Amino acid sequence: MDLSDAPQLPDASHLSVVLDLSPTQWHLSGLLSNKYPLSLNSFLSHVLAFLNAHLASQHENTLAVFGAFPAKSLMLYSSTLHNPELQSIDSNSYAPFKLVDSTIINRISDELDAIDHSEEEDAPCALVGALTKALCYVNRISLPPPSNSSTSLNTRDSTVLPDPRILILSVSPDLSTSYIPIMNSIFSAQKLKVTIDACQVYGPDAVFLQQAAHLTGGSYLFLERRDALLQYLIMSFLSAPSIRQILAVPTQDRIDFRAACFCHKNIIDIGFVCSVCLSIFCQPVPVCSTCRTKFPIKTLQRLNASRPNVPSLNKSGPPSVVGTPQSRTPASTDSRRNLPFPGEQPLSTTPGNGNTPATNGSKH
Amino acid sequence: MPPRKDRDFVMGFDSDSDISLPEDDVSTSTKVKGKAKAKAGDKLRSDKGKGKAKDAQAYTWEASYTRSWDTVQEDEAGSLQSSVDELMARGRRPNLSLLAPAAAIRRTIIRHLVLLLDLSASMMDRDMRPTRFDLMLQYAREFIAEWFDQNPLGQIGVIGMRAGIGERIGEMSGNPQDVLKYIAERHKLEPTGEPSLQNAIEMARSSMNHLPTHSSREILIIFGSLTTCDPGNIHDTIDTCVKNKIRISVVALAAEMKVCRELCNKTGGQFGVAMNEGHFKDLLFELIPPPAQRATSRAAGAGTGSSNPAADLMMMGFPTRLPDATAPTLCVCHSELKSQGFLCPRCLSKVCDVPTDCDICGLMIVSSPHLARSYHHLFPVKPYDTVANLENVTNPSSSCHACSRPFPTTVSTSATEGVSPVGRYKCPECHHDFCADCDVFVHDVIHCCPGCGN
């Protein structure tokens, strides 16, 4: 006992990986028109190498892999469940690695084949389901072992693992309908003392994942050189959070604290909040849809007046663009601001125009 | 273990009019504890104990005292583990069944609380270990931390009652660290003299006068004394509190006082007498979740057509946080050169901390995670149904949908009401099966069903 875990060695750690396996996004990511195309196959080979590195860095390390498919999520691999389907041993590969790799690859290909091409492919990816499952799994393995092994509880305290962490490899843009479940997952991760790391491999910056990493003390990485994924993974996510204080892992840039409104599920930076239940709306509403509180008519008039142009009730257009007062300011710059993003999602409009004047303004 | 037994004992006694002196309480409870232990030993061994217990039942309250040790059964191997597991499983199920609000509930989430601490000489009593005073400080700290965790937009002020006057210990603050600092220094709070309820309540009331109407105003009194020395008529004070919509809750450490109960009843607060250390903590922590607004106010609001004047719509901005590594710039709140900070989304000026009002454009800036902390109160997960048997289920799943632990294949025989004999709990929405651990975890912590959360 004393010899096996020398004081310098870090304790065994648990890693849960959540893989975003949206076929649409991976197809887009693999297109050669991208600057650094990354196909699902090469992505998986990078990830498997990373997982093997995690298992190799300490014998006691445990691993669980969750997959988020369109409208479905499931556990792909866990080191506590022993998969019976062990293939013939390949003399050229290390058996534990081979087991991990083949199990994950088989499960993924089974699931991707099972996707009904007509409708399900476009369904949003079940990232929240996979994340909550990962949390349930961490909760389960961090609970003391069940009654039958209670006699050995004192001898094996190390079964209650330290430093559990979750790594999310996402390729989809933020799904604003899942704002509340994601925030709930973040707070439960805080309670469980789980670190959430997030890596946006493809697509725009993910606001919610930034917040997740920030609030749980993990790091968020937006991948620029996607062909160097493995290097990013190993340099910034392989080490346990306790060691990262010593290493110089990339720190987070600015963190977006924007939220999704309850009414249109838009991601907004200025919202209208019900004082009773704190529901967020992107435009002044007479009645809170969550708690059915009626707001005084005076407030509505005041808020509508404070917004320079009351939006015409155009139902087809994205309401958030008209809903955020910032984008409606009748300044001369405003028209210029709005032009480049006519039909774009609101999440990409605001940070772009928001940041440049900020640094300029405060420096003067 | 003694605290639990103690508590059961007094509950059987009569918690409503517990006006005996604390010394009495302690002596009787210890006496009974000793007796109980002896009886427990007898009971488990032989039947002789029964007759003995009957003889010993000299007091009527003994009849209503449930002997918790009688319900525990040893299993074949002589171990108590199965009973303990069962009790634990049963203990957590009822809590879940209570959480099922049919309609949308309203809760006051922006709360203002004044903590009134009794710092009179009676707080030095040692009936709670180490003293009432030390225990109060310790629990108050835990209370404050937990309170801010659940009410991130709330504010707490602290007022002490000693030597006949109310003494302001800390102003209203939304920063848990500030509030904890108020009561960190024990020697500054040394109890002396008599408490004055009226003085302290008046002081708390005046400090909450200016608050906006949409936030709640609450006073929590931790009261250890049996007397109060007031300069005027305290009933006038109570009436003004009712008029100002201040909710007063009292946790008494000694015994029930009529004026305290009246305070709570009239203002809509809660009143409780702590019977022991654990119960004291329970009473305090019951006051942490945001109070649900009474249904009557909604009915009235709907009837008259005019809304609840307490409700309002507020414009808020969600800022961008700048990293520590940016070039330092001046903040608008202190005019200090800093690199980290938050950018107001409307005027893009930099403020040091949130929540705050932007000094330039006046927009209320909050961090959206602060708001989101309370959302699980609004959208609770429906309680899972207990799966009684697998007879009607075709092709049952072999493992928990959340943590993938295989379900037990054997049917447990000792299961009681509310506990599934096959260890499965089904979500009424997505019809996936979950294990008991995940059931509790999903409802207590995550507040989001892994099956429905798509």
From TrEMBL, chain A:
Q: Which Pfam families match?
A: Tfb4 (PF03850)
Quaternary arrangement and interactors, per the entry?
Component of the 7-subunit TFIIH core complex composed of XPB/SSL2, XPD/RAD3, SSL1, TFB1, TFB2, TFB4 and TFB5, which is active in NER. The core complex associates with the 3-subunit CTD-kinase module TFIIK composed of CCL1, KIN28 and TFB3 to form the 10-subunit holoenzyme (holo-TFIIH) active in transcription.
- Keyword Zinc-finger (UniProt): yes
Q: Record's GO cellular component, any one?
A: transcription factor TFIIH holo complex
Polar residues bias spans:
306-333
Q: Keyword check for Transcription regulation, yes or no.
A: yes
Q: Where is the composition biased (Low complexity)?
A: 349-364
Region of interest (Disordered), residue spans: 306-364
Biological processes, Gene Ontology terms: nucleotide-excision repair; regulation of DNA-templated transcription
Protein family:
Belongs to the TFB4 family.
InterPro entries given for it?
TFIIH_Tfb4/GTF2H3 (IPR004600), vWFA_dom_sf (IPR036465)
Q: Which Gene3D superfamilies match?
A: von Willebrand factor, type A domain
Q: What does this protein do?
A: Component of the general transcription and DNA repair factor IIH (TFIIH) core complex, which is involved in general and transcription-coupled nucleotide excision repair (NER) of damaged DNA and, when complexed to TFIIK, in RNA transcription by RNA polymerase II. In NER, TFIIH acts by opening DNA around the lesion to allow the excision of the damaged oligonucleotide and its replacement by a new DNA fragment. In transcription, TFIIH has an essential role in transcription initiation.
Question: Which keywords belong to this entry?
Answer: DNA damage, DNA repair, Metal-binding, Nucleus, Transcription, Transcription regulation, Zinc, Zinc-finger
The record's subcellular locations are:
Nucleus
Tell me the PANTHER family matching this sequence.
Answer: GENERAL TRANSCRIPTION FACTOR IIH SUBUNIT 3 (PTHR12831:SF0), TRANSCRIPTION INITIATION FACTOR IIH TFIIH , POLYPEPTIDE 3-RELATED (PTHR12831)
Tell me the GO molecular function terms: zinc ion binding
Q: What is the official name of this protein in its record?
A: General transcription and DNA repair factor IIH subunit TFB4
From TrEMBL, chain B:
Q: Where is this region: Disordered?
A: 1-54
Q: Which residues form a coiled coil?
A: none
Any single GO BP term: regulation of transcription by RNA polymerase II
- Tell me the InterPro entries matching this sequence: C1-like_sf, Ssl1-like, TFIIH_C1-like_dom, TFIIH_SSL1/p44, VWF_A, vWFA_dom_sf, Znf_C2H2_type, Znf_RING/FYVE/PHD
Main subcellular location of this protein, as a coarse class: nucleus
Identify the Gene3D superfamilies for this entry: von Willebrand factor, type A domain (3.40.50.410), Zinc/RING finger domain, C3HC4 (zinc finger) (3.30.40.10)
One GO cellular component assignment for this chain's record is: transcription factor TFIIH core complex
The UniProt entry, under Pfam families, shows: C1_4, Ssl1
Q: Name one GO molecular function term.
A: zinc ion binding
| Residues in C4-type zinc fingers | 344-361
Compositional bias, Basic and acidic residues, is annotated for 39-54
Q: Where in the cell is it found?
A: Nucleus
Domain VWFA: residue ranges: 112-263
Q: Which NCBIfam families match?
A: ssl1
Family designation: Belongs to the GTF2H2 family.
| Descriptive protein name | General transcription and DNA repair factor IIH
Q: Which organism is it from?
A: Laccaria amethystina LaAM-08-1
